[in-house]
Each structure stands twice: as structure tokens, then as C-alpha cells.
Design goal:
single chain, 220 residues, alpha/beta, Rossmann fold, Arc Repressor Mutant, subunit A, 4-stranded antiparallel β-sheet, 11 strands, globular, binds calcium ion
């Protein structure tokens, strides 16, 4: 899952980036409103953490511009403690959730997981596809109740597919959501991860749609 983190406080930005990376997310950062708007408008993100007090272009304006241009990714805003009206303005402008500074990172991570799940239509913290269960809180995967050891990349690929079951996912889309840097994005490596996942998962779960991509198939 790929997150855009927009925060001009360098210390907080660095800390959050580390925590999010630790939690398994691919993180891109922006420290002003102009960069944030550009990234959010041109690249695919599974969620955005958006501070409202930003230089060059304030967070509220950035959010309004995204929504006006039909960018529907979930956005969690960060608001200052004494500015209750920011929450109201932010939610009215299209934010999906908010956190008031200072906050506990664990709470931010929980809200982020919930946003990403809801955006893909899942209400439970556990995603299930036949015998395969992914606990989105821990990133642990099990098959028929037995835990499965996956590498970071394998988990990212499987997690993306499990958030979008029975949906055709192109290799480009997968690549964009599991790599941070453009130069890492060699879509051939996706095939390698898929091949490894197939060896570890029940047969027939990941279908190749020739020339188009992959589909996680929910067993009948
Ligand atoms: Ca700020």
C-alpha cells in the first residue's frame, strides 16, 4: 500500500515516515502544498495523510483541488490542537478522517488501516479469500489457520490483491503500489513475486489474465 505523507514539520515527518515504513507501507513525502497537490494529482496512492498548516498552499486548498478533480483516495487530515474549526472545514472539504496533534502513532496507524479497508469496501480488520486470511493489523497471513511466511514484497503484492479481490489488477498498478521509487519499478519482478506467492498459496487463487494482469479469485 502506497501512502502520501504531507507534513512540513521535518521532525514529525521523519518520525511518521519511519513508523509507516515499519508498518509495511511505501511512503512518499511532501513538505509543502504545491508538491503535495502535484503528487496526489498525478500518482496513485492508497491513502494520504495531510497536514493542514502547510507552506505555499494550505492543506485545505490542496484537498479541495483534489476533490474538485475527482481524486477520491482516502485522506486523513492532521489538525492543530486549538483549531476545532479545521476539523469541520476539513471534513466538509472531503477529508475522510482527522487526527488532532499531538497524537499517538498507533492510533494514526489504526485509522489509516480502517480508511484503506473501507475504501476497498472491507469492514473487517481481517481480509479473507477462501482459506487465506490476512490480518491487516499485523500483516500476518494464514492459510487454513496455519501461518504463512512471506517476504515484504510478497506480502505487499498479496495485500494489494486481497484489498481488491475478484478485480483485474494490472502489472503496472501493482508495481505502482508496491514500490516507492520509479527506478525500482521493473514490472518483470512482479511476475517473480506472483510466482513465489503461487507456490505458497492454494492452487488457482491468483489467476493470470493474459496480457492484462492478475486477479485474486475468491473460491466458490
Ligand atoms: Ca504544519
Amino acid at each position: 500500500m502506497r501512502i502520501l505523507l504531507v507534513e512540513d514539520d521535518t521532525t514529525l515527518c521523519t518520525q511518521l515516515r519511519e513508523e509507516l515504513t515499519e508498518a509495511g507501507y511505501i511512503v512518499e513525502t511532501a513538505q509543502n502544498g504545491i508538491d503535495a497537490h502535484h503528487l496526489g494529482a498525478t500518482e496513485p496512492f492508497d491513502a494520504v495523510i495531510l497536514d493542514l498548516g502547510l507552506p505555499q498552499l494550505d492543506g485545505l486548498t490542496v484537498l479541495k483541488k483534489w476533490r474538485a478533480a475527482d481524486h477520491t483516495m482516502p485522506v486523513l487530515i492532521l489538525t492543530a490542537r486549538d483549531a476545532w474549526h479545521e476539523k469541520v472545514d476539513g471534513m466538509d472539504a472531503g477529508a475522510d478522517d482527522y487526527m488532532v496533534k499531538p497524537f499517538h502513532v498507533q492510533e494514526l496507524l489504526a485509522r489509516l488501516r480502517a480508511l484503506i479497508r473501507r475504501a476497498s469496501g472491507h469492514a473487517s480488520v481481517e481480509l479473507q479469500c477462501g482459506p487465506v486470511v490476512l490480518d491487516t493489523r499485523t500483516g500476518k497471513v494464514s492459510v487454513n489457520g496455519r501461518s504463512l511466511a512471506l517476504t515484504g514484497h510478497e506480502l505487499r503484492v498479496l495485500s494489494y490483491l486481497m484489498h481488491h479481490p475478484d478485480t483485474l489488477v494490472s502489472r503496472t498498478e501493482l508495481t505502482e503500489h508496491i514500490y516507492a521509487q520509479e527506478f525500482d519499478r521493473d514490472s518483470n519482478t512482479i511476475e517473480v513475486f506472483i510466482a513465489r506467492l503461487r507456490k505458497k498459496l492454494p492452487q488457482g487463487l491468483i489467476k493470470t489474465v493474459r496480457g492484462l494482469g492478475y486477479q485474486l479469485v475468491t473460491p466458490e
